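Lecture notes, unit on protein representations.

Consider one protein chain, 236 amino acids long.
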Amino acid sequence: MTADQKPRTDDELRSLAERAGRELEDAAAPEILRWAVDTFGAGFCVTSSMEDAVVAHLASRVRPGVDVVFLDTGYHFPETIGTRDAVAAVMDVNVRTLTPRQTVAEQDAEYGPRLHDRDPDLCCALRKVRPLEEGLENYRAWATGLRRDESPTRANTPVVGWDEKRRKVKVSPIARWTQDDVDAYVAEHGVLTNPLLMDGYASIGCAPCTRRVLEGEDARAGRWAGRAKTECGLHG
């Protein structure tokens, strides 16, 4: 299916995604991304937290100039913003930065300071989930860097699936990769990574809600440590 033959209804998109998920389960990441680009054309983008630029790099080799969507929550580590700027400067991608409707100061004025401590779900909804939903409005499909080995909550991530909440096709081309696969790809291609990965951080989000991981912990253990929360709402 080519980009000018995109299905128009949600039912068609859901069926397409479910079929592709089955057919591409054992496919290599570039093949999965080629399917997405051929199917959706400009209606496809990559989302990146700028933990690393692996999926952006993979996609740029399939579609030079591909849109890479980044959420600037206002709470990022300086290293994360630096990684975004470096990716924009040296990779053949079009980085689009999304921002929340309110600045941190405006949010503090309305909800009180440190909302992330008192109600992290609301903070994520305001600074991540809503901006992403608005930023993805003109796309029918989006790629993520989700991997099954990151945590139990991601163990069943399909390589292509249907995002029921956003009514879009969700592509996870490296879902079957391990951390060793990621490290090998980074080393082979000189892919940009966030410097914090070399400083004990295994999963990098907003600074107030991210800590270094301890030996033996899974990659997501440093996010919202001490809370039952494991996801920000972007992926479930």
